[in-house]
Structure formats: C-alpha cells, structure tokens
Amino acid sequence: MKTTPPQRPARDDTAPVRPVRLTAGPLLLAVSVLLVVMLLGMTIGPAGLPVRGVLVELVGHVPGVDVAGGLDEQDTAVLWELRVPRVVLGMMVGGMLAIAGAGYQGVFRNPLADPYLLGVAAGAGLGATFAIVSGTDRAFVPLFAFTGGLAGVAATYALGRSAGGRSVNSLILAGVAVSAFFAAIQTYVNQRNSDSLREVYGWILGRLLTAGWDEVLTILPYVAVATAVIFGHRRLLDVLSVGQDEAGSLGVPAARVRLLVVLAATLGTAAAVAVSGLIGFVGIVVPHIVRMLTGTSYRIILPLSALLGAAFLVAADLAARTLISPGELPVGVLTAFIGAPFFTLVLRSTRRSW
Question: What does the domain layout of the chain look like in residue ranges?
Fold first, then answer.
C-alpha cells in the first residue's frame, strides 16, 4: 500500500522577525576598522605626522593622563586644527548617511532606497546654488543647503498626500517629481550665472573641507537627534519588515513609524549634506553590505552601519586627498566609483531576494 510522506508545515512568511542581538565579535571588528581608518586619516597627508606622536598626543588629551613625547607645536596645530576636525566630520557625515539609508530601506522595504530618495539632495543642491550665485558669504551656504533639503522633503510629502495619500508608492513618485523640478530650476540658475558654475559643481560633487571645528559643531545637534530617533525605532523597523498590514495587526502604527523615521533621516541627511555637499551611495552601499553579512535585523544593521559608514567615508576622503596629491579629488567622485557598480549588483540581486 502506497503511503504518503508526512508534509512539513508551511512556512509562515508573515511571522515577525525574531529579535537578534548584536554580539561582541562584529561590534569589535567594526570598531577596530574605524579606529585604524581614523589613525590613518590623522597621520597621512601633505604634512605627514608620525603614528607614535599622534597616539601620544591623543592619549595626552584623555582626562587624568599625562604623557610626554608627542608632537612639536607645528604638528600639534596641524593635528588638532586640520586633521582631527576633518576626520570627525567624515565620521559624522558617513555614519549619518549610512544610518539614514538603513532607515529609508527599512520603512520602504527596498534595498535601493537611499537618504536622497525624497528630494533632500535636489533641495539642498538648489539651496546651495542660490547661495553661491547670489554672492552670499560662504559661511551661509550650509544654511541655505539645509533649508533647501528640508523644503524638498516637505514638497514631496505635500505632493504625495495630494496625489494619493501617504502610501509608499505615492511618496516615492512624488520624490522623483520634486527632484526633477528642483534640478530643472538649478540648471536654469546655473546657466544664467555661468561664472559661478565651477564653485557650484565643486559643492555638488561633495567634499570634506574644514576650517576647524565649526562644521562639526554645526551639524552635531541634528545628527545626534536624528540618530537617537532612528535607533529608538530599530525594533519597530524589524516589525515593519513583515509588511504594513501585518505590522498593523501586531499593534505597530506603521504610518507613524514611517513618518518619524523619514523625518529623522531627512533632518540628519540635510545637516550632513549642508556641510559636505552631495556624497552619494554611502546610504546604499554600507547598510546593504551589513545586511548581507549579518542578517536583516535592524538591531544589528543600524549600529554597524553607523560605524562602517563612518569608516567608509573617512577612508574615501583619505584616498581623495592623496591619490593626486598635492591636488584633491572630490570625495563624492570616489564614492560614486565604488557605489555605482555595487548599486548594479544590488539591483540584479533584488530579482532573487529581498
């Protein structure tokens, strides 16, 4: 008599993602990578600084620690007035873009989502262009860019709600429309002010130029608030990964979570873009690499994205200022060289899994 083999229970794809905790191994590895890249960023440059002297100088600034034998007066000024602020700024911008990218990918459930999806880049670019062509003091360019970035996202939300409510597709399409409209205005302004074209494109291509700690202190409050909000929703992002309807059945207000995460990511991205220009692909490349290596839980993706995003941009900036020394490449060009091929691979892989 023919018997039927027992059937395995069907897999429930709507079950919530099992919480995963970040273990010490990946965390220590990411921290180690960041520390090595930071040290390289502080020591390598037109004025090379000795590794031992830099380490002694850094340790000497730890409260309660008194060591001698660091750097001379000139090298100390180079370290604390040029190298350290630039490295710290790169860490903040890279980490913020990576966190914002992970947040966007979580709420939109799409690995191709990035921090510029809803018009931040187009708005910031237009704001910076207006500031540059109008002859405004360079110190106010970040303010114009920040305001433009927020205006771009506000326009996207307004258009998305008028066209189809708050659905994901409506917001994405509205972001495409707003970005195209702002880009058209920016192109027109550039053509009418061709004498400022070089400076405008220099800002658009992205750079990490600091004149001290001003840029770091400018974006610090926005990055801190945005990071705290996104990290505070990391467990809810895990729940959203099962789908909006399923998350609602579990008591998670999907629309409110999406709004808060998007607003926080937008705030942090606008602040980062305001001082660094448009540095692309960090928000796609870093979170997706973390996801491929460690899994899909945002309790792991977000902290590791912050650390590796910071390391990635500091390393890219180091390469940008050494590859053609004494000249300097825009850091956005290097991130595009790395990110564009990776974006293609991600696009191909989405046909098989996400």
Answer: 72-211+218-349
